[in-house]
Amino acid sequence: MAEEIDCENEKLESLKNILDHSISSLTTRGHLKRRNPCDQIIPGLYLGDCAAATSLDHLHLLGITHILNAAEGTDFNQIMTGNDFYQGTPIKYYGISADDDDSYDLSRHFDESSDIIKQVIGTKAQPKNNGKILVHCMAGVSRSPTFVASYLMRDHGMDVNEALKIVSDARFIYPNDGFLKLLMKYNRRLDNKGS
């Protein structure tokens, strides 16, 4: 049991090292000095914050056709945009109420969020061009990047290290430890499924 905990802690530290390295790289390139409200992760898939989600002009400029709000609600650290906010635009809205807390089981939404992204841009094996999707939360650094990473893992065949590297190379992210542990667990589940 103690060996399993040590192994999980080592893997967690390894993921944090990937994120730290990407932060250093982004700082060197000047990205953190001028943090964008949203960044493209792969073609058609954008990751951002509440400012990106509420700037209708910017969404129109980017050609965003779908929104996935990973922080839906009216409580602290949530944003309630909803269908009413996007009324009169071509944007289709999806919302998931999730807390940014180490103890929150965000993994219960991994398949739902991945299905939403998949219906817009498809998978690596079967890409679609049904528009562009912005996945966001309040700051775009914990909940929404965890959803994007889980999508890349499930639908692009990436392991957790590769998925986090892809996301963190494009945008400053730092999912909480609980979410990183859930991604490691999801990685094991996907590995077992593929075996």
Please write the string of helix (H) and strand (E) elements: HEEHHEHEHEHHH
**Beta fraction:** 5-15%
Q: What is the second-level CATH architecture?
A: Alpha-Beta Complex
- Structural class call reads alpha/beta
Structure description:
- It contains 8 helices and 5 strands, in the order H-E-E-H-H-E-H-E-H-E-H-H-H.
- The protein is globular, with a radius of gyration of 16 Å.
- The protein has one domain: Protein tyrosine phosphatase superfamily (Protein-Tyrosine Phosphatase, Chain A, Alpha-Beta Complex), CATH 3.90.190.
- Helix content is 50%, strand content 11%.
- The mean pLDDT is 88.
Q: How do the strands and helices of this protein lay out in sequence?
A:
Blueprint: H1 2-28, E1 38-42, E2 45-48, H2 50-54, H3 56-62, E3 66-69, H4 82-85, E4 92-95, H5 110-121, E5 133-136, H6 143-156, H7 160-170, H8 177-194
Parallel strand pairs: 2-5, 3-4, 3-5
Antiparallel strand pairs: 1-2
Helix pairs in contact: 1-7, 1-8, 5-6, 6-7, 6-8
